[in-house]
Design brief:
Blueprint: H1 4-9, H2 11-15, H3 21-33, H4 35-53, H5 62-77
Helix pairs in contact: 3-4
């Protein structure tokens, strides 16, 4: 039987349905007995669904952010 930690480590694979048959059965057995992991996976699925609904935007700030990081790195080297 899987432990809660193992189920949480498989969270992304569970949500994305990328588990093999044996692992999937072990996860389902654990979820049948563990309300905490069921809640965790519901929250993970909700988060994934919410993120998918966010509009994709260009990242015009990315070059400015990168430049600022490089400046800071240069400041700390002195």
């Amino acid at each position: 039987m899987l432990k809660c930690r193992q189920v949480s480590e498989l969270g992304s694979e569970i949500v994305d349905r990328r588990l093999g048959v044996g692992t999937r059965l072990a996860v389902l057995a654990h979820l049948g007995l563990c309300p905490h992991c069921r809640r965790y996976l519901r929250q993970l699925r909700l988060t994934a669904e919410t993120l998918k609904r966010l509009p994709l935007e260009d990242e015009p700030e990315a070059p400015a952010i990168l430049a600022a990081i490089r400046r800071r790195q240069g400041e700390t080297k002195d």
